[in-house]
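Entry 14. Structure prediction run on the chain below.
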Amino acid sequence: MDVNKFSSFDSLQAAPFTIRTTCAGISTELKCTRILRVIPAKRIVCFGVYNEKRVVAKFFLDTKNAKRHFKREIKGLKALKRSEILTPDILSKKHLLLNGLPVLIFQRIEPAFDLDTSLKLLNNNRDQVELLARVAEIIAKLHNAGLKQNDLHFENFIVSGNLIFTIDGASIDTRRMGTGLPVSKSLKNLGLFLSQIDPRFNQQIPDILKRYLQKRKINFSGGLNSRMINYIRIHKARRKQRRLKKIFRESTDFVCQKSWNRFWVCDRRDYTKAMRRFLAAPDQAVGKAKIIKNGNSSTVAQIIIDNRLLIVKRYNIKNKLHALERCWRSSRASVSWRNAHLLKFCGILTPRPVMFFEKRFGYLRSKAYFLMEYIDGVDAYNFFHSNTYSGENSTGLARKFGVLFQMLADASISHSDFKATNFIITSDKKIYLIDLDGLRAHRCRWMFQRAFKKDCRRFMQNWQNLPEATQMFIKQLDRLKL
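Output returned:
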């Protein structure tokens, strides 16, 4: 791809592509090999090769604000360097001939993973907590230098061996550089980071906070810990709200198309040629798939896309009266899509949502589809009613159900249909919750408690002829803090 042949960079959505520029009579070439991140009409980040070096390139695409964002990125990275905080070196700062749009070319750190991936690669909780504490110490070093990373998320920390690099200079607030950040602002900023950790690390938050405070030379106290817990709660609520808005529009993570006769959103990782063929004719694809359930209100089928087994759930329109009832309401596919992302945000296992699709006539909704990953496992009913079931070896699994129910309770989420077939148990004894179109997040706690107690009663009906399982689950439900 030659930069001089394009009027904008909006079409740079697939790699590889090559950018050629000429400056002072010298021709240079940047070959982008893999797209890492896309913020539509704003930025693209990719792996590439420049002057025979493996690099990371960051394109600034917003014609109105690109130069300002470019300068802010450089200013933030220079501030990190002056504060002796590890960040990748800038190899080149260019303004491309096309509209003068700038690109930054960075040293590529290898091998390296973002913080989220690095945590998943570690084998035990102790090592994971240690890594989180080390990042908290880096945040403390930022605050000691008077710097604050406003967009403080896991992707802004790159782990390479024993080194941790901080990236995204554009989000670095340098206004107080040279003077330590006030305690209140510091704790709020750290709370933003801690609000993103897995809920299973909640008990280690005081330990992580202590490591941060030691670096800031501030004494730990119960008051500071309480303030931190409150900041985390506030940030989680804000992040959840922002996240659930993003899943219905074009963004870094999602591809979206909305017209008078259709509306769909697809995970960008899954938006391939095969997926586009499915989106062009979903009924035809379902007709060729292996049908699991063929009911009046919904059809469930196994489908293969890109050599991956997926589950598609089509929400049918039974008759004219049903069409009239459903056309004004959110489709059950969009509700399942939203609820799957809500559970993911809360750290609760559910099959990964891939896509949802609505057929429309203007604002009126019709048939809809929800596509999710296939989980290889057995439902809880068949697991506990099988000949291999043993109450003794399933005690640990019952505890996992207790943990799952407590996580739902902590998030004020009720399901509305706790039949045993809606829990999938994998070979490594992980529990996935499915059938999400009736799931609800409650604002009123007493309404949640009423709905969740109804869920629990329905859950216990599954084990009426299994006294051992009944006793195990009663024990777990009695421990719940509602």
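The first helix runs from residue 66 to 82.
Filed with the rest of this week's runs.
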